[in-house]
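Dear support,

I submitted the protein below through the web form. The confirmation email said the job was done, but the results page showed an empty box. After a refresh the structure appeared. I'm attaching both so you can tell me whether what I see now is the final result or a partial one.
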Amino acid sequence: MSAVGTVLVTGGAGFIGCALSQKLAGSAERWVVLDSMHPQVHGDTVRPTELYDDAEMIVGDVTDAAAWDTLLETVRPDVVIHLAAETGTAQSLHEASRHSRVNVVGTTEMLDAFGRAGIVPGLILLSSSRAVYGEGQWRSAAGELYVPGQRSHAQFENAQWDFPDSEPVASSAARTWPTPTSVYGATKLAQEHILSAWVEAHDSALVILRLQNVYGPGQSLINSYTGIVSLFSQLAADGKSIPIYEDGKITRDFVYIEDVADAFVALLKHAPKQGLVRYDVGSGVGTTIQELAQHIADFHHAPAPHVTGAYRDGDVRYASCDIEPTTAALGWQPQWSVERGVAGLQDWIAAQA
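What the results page shows now:
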């Protein structure tokens, strides 16, 4: 990345923010992090050791207008990387106000603060989510594409995991209309719409990265809502059988943190000067939860995973993406397979212990 001016990273002391700082902060004149250090993620307010040494860290809440005004007295960002968000699809159903307050109001407070300070960043990067797609598109036996919507509680109760006579289709920002099936996904889509409206009115640029399931060294080991890979890893390390929901065939695109950070690096090399672009960032490979659990169990020589038939309301059956448009536009290619990534995460978890 060529040198940039001042970069402001909201939520920049978190999993992705720390990884980005190691890749990018050295090329910025200033790398400023605003993070609330929420105990669900961090456990305490100690500065993360994974954060780049010269990064400036400010503890503050994106929903706090006063915190924004104080920050912007001395920080005038040229680039904003907006990572701050409450995550967790299941938790968002029961804590909708919390997710909406941080994800939606936190975004509008940021933009309002920019207005009060007379700041228009040249580029805003939004870390969005595959959750905006919901179930995405499926293909019927007749070959027709359709959007099935959300699986109902009654379907779950009757163990009707799939949509009849249909197969899922990988999502793509170019062709898949967002239909979120969780409060979390709805708030992430709202972020996209809010920022899009703002940059268009201010002749700025917005890049939206719709991330699949990010995992790897540095992720929170205490947040049970966002770390299925780390949760499975800790169970297997303890010699326990990993419990698997539904019939084990829930599918996700697990993308390693190193690949995600490299996508951000590539993006900054190809960032637009104005307007909006969207990219899907994943491994491009769908992995069932049973396959993931088996990889982890094998690493630890743990008992075989077991299917429980349990479920989470609002959960999607299939989530993976088509990364070809992203690789073509950015010259970026994921390097980490699930097997290699799982091994890398296990080594890191062992080192933390």
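Response: this is the final, complete result; the empty box was a page-load delay. The domain at 4-352 is CATH 3.40.50.720 (Rossmann fold).
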